[in-house]
Amino acid sequence: MKGALSPEQVEVFSRVRTAVGTLFPNLSFLMQPFSLVPGEPGVRFVTMRLYHPVGPGRMEMYSWCLVPKDAPQEYKDEAYRAYTLAFGQAGTFEQDDFENWTKVTRSAASTMVRDLDFPYIMGMDSAPAEDFAGPGHVVVPYVNDTNFRNLWTRWGDYLVGEV
Amino acid sequence: MTSAPDQSVCWEITQFLYREALALDERRFRDWLKMLADDIRYEIPVRVTREGLADWELAPTSRILDEDRQTLEVRVRRLETDFAWAEQPPSRTRHFVTNVIVDATGTPDEYLVNSNVLIYRSRGADPDPDLYSLFRKDVVRRGEHGWLLAKRWAALDQSLVNAHNMSIFI
User: Which InterPro entries does the record associate with it (chain B) (predicted)?
Assistant: First the structure.
């Protein structure tokens, strides 16, 4: 990684604890530390997931766990076990997510929701952070709707053939 | 070559598996934990669709569950909090354990137990239940106070699991 990034960029990454993102349209990644023992600092891994639509309101999900190539085998084994405890069909986190996503999808089709607007306006007026070392549009704080706006705008571009 | 143990052992182990299933279906998870050996290994590999001549169908390293005593206790403790949303309200399960075959192993008081399991799972007011079909290859050990599950090696009979999650113990 140090070969591909500038020292300033490495410095930014070195302070990152958790990272999430999506490659449009349906490949997401999550990087976070997780421990087999609650309360301990744990090991960091990356999970990539592909949401493969199979029809209206249905998707298949593929999930991978990635670990650093040069990490010792012991680290890789612990990271994979931590990933399995937290994520996947039986993951202690992901079980809840699957339940939520199913219910959210069903609720979004309800008559009550049809009259609601979904205002993705959080952070719209944030000026880009000036001293960020990377490429990309960066705003602070990270809690904002920029990525939702990006996703739906891009999707809209494809729909109207403006890509 | 393994040999079939005598009838009383086979009957006792089958009864043990039924009581284990009942503890899970009645959500007596602390009772269930008491039926596991301290060195329990509970591994559920991912099933992969491969051509018939492939040398494996169960992924060598991919796991749906890969548990020991400590992580199973974490899972039970989670179920006892207010925050296990996937199980709040709880799933209703029914474990149908059948085709129990008991074989002696090289180790005294330890038996290899094959069984088929069908688990019916229903949640909330959803009229469509989930059905999980799986095989189990368990190691069941005679302990001081009764039988214990020392190892569970089980896999679902699907490569793509046809349920929105697997929030239950199999």
Answer: NTF2-like_dom_sf, Rng_hydr_dOase-bsu
